[in-house]
Input
Amino acid sequence: MHTGITTSTWRDYVADHRAPAPRPGYDPDTGRKTWDPDTVRAWHAGRPGQGARTDLTYLPSTSGQPVFINPTTITTATLLRDLTHAAGATITKTALRHHWAQRFPDHDEPPPLPQPTRDTPSIPTTRQITKALGALTRLGAIHHDRRHITITDHTLLTQIANLPLA
Output
């Protein structure tokens, strides 16, 4: 194959409907499906590349670097948005943790997040909340110190809160 994809990988792509559609009919000499070379080249050029995580959401930080947005970050942004109504509002981290506990009351032990098979995250650990707050800080939505969280951009916080949970 002229794109560097092995035959067995191409068969997997075709079986999983990840490859472009074949030409109508079959090759008269081999009796197999055929693909237009230009269509396959264009499809291959548009692929994200080896190791690319297309299942993740990234947003640019204030410095232009991508920031990973996981389900914990999205839910944290949602809870902060619900607790505050404008930029400049400040809440305690304890209030955020209590809001997490109220939202997900039936969980005793928090499993590790993110969990790609779940629609909604469980109660995260303190470290996971801290990572989510760090991501929101790098994006410029909040500023936080040891005990307090200050909303710096409520519009951005709402935008992150409205992202779909993976």
About this structure: The chain has six helices and five strands. Residues 111-121 have pLDDT under 50 and may be disordered.
